[in-house]
Records
---
Amino acid sequence: MSALRLTAADVGQRVSVRSRLPDPAPAGPTLTDTIGYLRSWTGDRVEIERKDGVTVYLAAADIVAGKVLGPPPRRRTEPN
């Protein structure tokens, strides 16, 4: 993922977003990835609902890359 290919028109879609961490540790990572459904993009604020139901709030200015994903993969079932 190397480009921002998301806009407010993608609200409702399943997305993958890479963003800057607001307060990274001195020797730790500076970026994080979020996968979920884009629930809102208003002005400078983006809301993404993850699979576990947690809503992640991001500053639009902190997003460095993102794209729309297809539907989540189907779960495999165990053979009987």
---
Amino acid sequence: MLFVGELEVPADTAATAPATVTMDLAPGRITSIGIFFPYKRGAFVGVRIMEREHQQWPTNLDHWIVGDDETVQWAENHDLEETPFELRLEAYNTDDTFAHTVYVRVAVEELQAVVAAASGGLLGSIGDFLGLGRSGGAG
């Protein structure tokens, strides 16, 4: 599943009082994140992603992701196990004249797929240990 967030950041928005928007997600595993910074606009804007009251990305606390005419993206392996299944985008804007918008995309592997993959791996390992092979029968 792909979730998209959009955050318009007013001019002169301080990092100490950032603009925010909440992205509602679904239970599962975050597999990738991308943040698009528009051309000649993004250099003014810094973004961080929060889960509950904790900064998740960037990992180094009190830092922000900044870009200009680029999508900053990375693979992730982060489980969403507790409600609410959401992330909060926060951003500042040092431009004293114009608002700027950043776009965030979050890919989430559905919970059923995560559980099936984990169970299959565990059950397969137990079967291997017992000499049953991957097919579940004697072999």
---
Amino acid sequence: MTEAFRLLNKSIIRVEQPDVHLDQDDAEEMEVDQPEAERPEGEDGEEAAPPAAPKQKLTLSFEAYKNLSNLLVFHMRHEEEKVEEGDSTSKGVRRSEVVAWYLDQISERFETEEEILEAKTLVEKVIDRLIYHDQVVIPLMKTGLAGDEESEEDDPYLVVHPNYIVDM
């Protein structure tokens, strides 16, 4: 019952808001801001100083988000297949490796270092959304038996949820 409710809510949100907001914290802060006319006045009747300039929101069209997420999922599944086939050179794919792979795929588009940083931020936000919001990707914080290896919170191995079917 709760799964049906969650799926229905997701589908309704996508219809009403086709753009995907990757900065969830910023979106929540923007709702709290007061309109220009309702801002409190400072002493002596003057308007209080305006708040710091808001950060530029990181949004993607739903189509661009879906294309990028499918590309990342295909790559992760390909790497998972290598591990399952017993390829000794591959142990799985870490988050940083997915980011580096994506940046390598689109490297010819960059002219400045700022563009590279923007693309890196974008792909990291998409991966975070796939993990924490869409629950398509599962971060493995530890591998092996308990206590065998150290925690890998900063750069976990990423695995695509086994029940996830890619929408075309």
